[in-house]
Fold:
Amino acid sequence: MAVSLREYRARIKSTESMKKITRAMELIAASRIIKAQQRAAAAAPYARELTRAVSAVATFSNVDHPLTREEENPKRAAVLVITSDRGLAGAYSSSVLKEAERLSERLRDEGKEIDYFLAGRKAEAYFKFRGRSYVQAWTGFSDQPTYDKAAEIGAALIAAFLKEQGEDGDVDEVHVVYTRFRSMLTQEPTAIRLLPLEVVEGEEAPEADDLLPLYEFEPSAEQVLDGLLPQYVQSRIFYSLLQAAASELAARQRAMKAATDNADELIKKLTRTANQARQAGITQEISEIVGGVNALADAQAAND
Amino acid sequence: MADTTVEHLHVELVAADRTVWSGEAAMIIARTLEGDIGVLRGHAPTLSLLQASVIEIQVAGTNQLVVAAVDGGVLSVANDRVSILAERVERAEDIEVQQARIDLEEAKRLLDSSNEAEQRVRHAEARIRAAEKVS
Structure:
């Protein structure tokens, strides 16, 4: 028992206060996650209706729009990496960044250069620390993204995408890396290609008796598409941000739960060793007293 | 999809981050890029771009009128189902007229210097109009 009882007590105390903090963070994350899920659910109707409208236009007109056009010889790709602003969320940010690195590797193999766009302080810090360059970073909203932010990011990405090849800042593809919220237990980092858009959700091939409505477009199909597609892109980004926010909170809740459990464990262990130390102290004192009494008794017996 | 027993239009008024209003309506008045449009039951399928303007929804079976301001967006009508999508949608009851007036003044001042200002002026005007309609 090299360490004194007092020291054990101090360590137990500090672990206990740490536990209180992690427990509070766990509860906060748990309560916010419900709100984040509600926000994601509230944004779903817009995305659904928009997808429906886009596929309606796509099925009735020849979809040739700058945002859907594939560059023949893509040279540059933009990657939007969505991470959190704060840490203490386990491997959340680092697994997104790892996924982004994997995607970058693949794009580089295809002979493309990469422009990075970052969302969240963690990604910004990661790039700054390594001295790597990025085009633009947005921070300060990772657990509560607003549509305005998504619109801002979307506008920047669309502007870069629409530039002519060879122009400064032009990109031919836009990818997004974010964390998909599957359930409270699983969130997986995902990479998707945002631009050029693939309008795949074209309504099912109409059956003979269930014809698709023949839409009238006002002012014209092209103009409607022109108005819809940027909104569609922004709504996809908004959706990614909302998913990332829910994932971040879930990851934080889990990390903090693990920290609380570990603190519990540590407190248990420390209490045991502290008790041992206390008992050892008592035993020693008793044996000292007994030894002393015995010695006295021996001395008296010798005198007698 | 085409349900002929439906008496009214089913309307979804949706902003980017929430559904603002959804329900049955007798009539909808909106303003597209080409002018005002009124939608009644049995309207031909239409997809139109909207201006920053006021949307009026006549709720089915009552005299109630839902008034909202949008900043653009799309109106789609098919099979007596109407969806109005816009990035920003505000119910007239929720609009702060004072704030809208301030926005309008500010946008008007920028009118010469930026392209967005015209859109902002329209949006602010629409918000004021919507708010005045219900007051």
Notes: The mean pLDDT of chain B is 85. Residues 9-91 of chain B form a domain with the ATP Synthase; domain 1 fold (CATH 2.60.15.10). The helical segments of chain B are 97-109, 116-134. Chain B touches chain A at residues 1, 12, 14-19, 32-34, 37, 44-49, 72-74, 76, 78-79, 83, 85, 87 (CB under 8 Å).
